[in-house]
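Notebook, p. 212. Picked up where the previous page left off. The plan for this session was modest: take the two constructs that came back from the sequencing core last week, fold each one, and keep the raw output in the notebook itself so nobody has to go hunting through shared drives later. Recording the first one now, exactly as returned: residue sequence, then the structure token string.
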Amino acid sequence: MEERGLTQKVKNIIINWSALALFGLFRRVWQYLTEKAEDESILNITFICTGNTCRSPMAQALFTQMAQDSGITFTASSAGLAAMPGQPAAEYAVKACKALGADLSAHRSKSLLQEDLASTDLFVVMTMQHAQALMKLGVAKNKIYILHVPDPFGGNLETYTQCCKEIRRQLATLLELIKKQEQKRTDE
């Protein structure tokens, strides 16, 4: 029975990664995470969206919650490509995350800074456009992971809840990839 569940998980991972494979990003992200795991340092992840009041803070909070018991060593932050610094997370983003056990109440938006570009090991972006903007700023493709999550800005609580659930679903795939690399490093 567990083997069947494992097989379905593998199929789900393959399906989730198929979109990235089209862009050749999966191989580059996998290679980068493999190299990062070998140097045994802390993985510094920055979640990126447009305004840093909805998707990227939800992703940061959810990832932190999901990864706490995983055994990986990481730091997580979020930023926006067009953020107005100091803004709280959107009310519905806070409520949607709270329903899933993550806390956004203390979040304040911040813009992506030059030092973020240098210190971040992995950028987790919400759209291909965010990835393209980072690449124009000089970020290597292998340091970018795309979630493909539409912006819920202006939507109702249900819109934010669905967005939050989709982010969590896609982060589970990313977390599995990171955990596999961590396991590979500890096995060597």
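Okay, moving on. Second construct, recorded in the same format:
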Amino acid sequence: MATDCGFEKGGEWFRYRAAAIIIEEGCVLFVSDGGFDYYYSVGGGVHHGETSEQAVLREVYEETGVRYEIDRLAVIHECFWNESDGCGGVRKCHELAFYYLMKPRGTKDLPGGDEKLLLHWVPVDKLGSVKAFPSFLADYLSGEHDGIEIITTHDESANERSENDMDYSLLISQLEAVTDGVDNNVTNLANAAALLYNSLEDVSWAGFYIADGGALMLGPFQGKPACVKIPRGRGVCGAAFERGKTVVVPNVHEFEGHIACDAASNSEIVIPLFKSGAVYGVLDIDSASLNRFSDGDREGLERFAKTLEARLV
């Protein structure tokens, strides 16, 4: 039996992985095994004595039943996270993954390979609203890239947050319940802020800023009094407003131009809300802890924001 390039020793785990980015008809391919509520990329561990190119071609064929061809190496992703070891302890994980862009075939029809896996085509423009890993793909596929991107992600709190991540589905259901039939943005944003502030652990502020010309104005929130007006591009909120993308800051004191509305805040996540194709405002959540917001939090909160966007009038 072939051996993956990896090891596990003394609570530490490492794997060398090869994965595929397969895009057909504006959709990217993911797989799931039916036991979890998320999708993940096609691919797997590189076998000892195998190149990453050989590994990705093998994995793609095993999982899809199709012999795709490689276009180019697109991303080198190094990821660090913690997870339960199943015995009450924590396993420290480290994965180095090579993501290859595959040449499209012009069809999403796949015979399928591994009977234990389910194949899912997700529209590229909907990646931000589904639970799919790696989470960087949503941002990566929204732009054009010529060379090889090197991406490093740290999710040291993944084990601590795993149960909370699973609760986002419940939180979204609660949001749908309190906003059902309510045609008032202030009311819906106020209830959304209250849900987040009272449901998420270790959160010191949760609320919204609303776009007003070239600035953001304070909207409904829960927590201490906050900055009233934030210019576009200033601070974490202004950066998310300007970029139109989620910004996660593990340590706000290292973020250039950070606006210290609350000196006790140490980490922050800001997610833009869209209406009619333009940024309507941002969802802002602060914590007194460093590195509070994991990839799971980001994914869950982006789904929460998408649900809220559908309620904007």
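Notes on construct two before I forget. Confidence is low (pLDDT under 50) at residues 156-166.
Flagging for discussion at group meeting.
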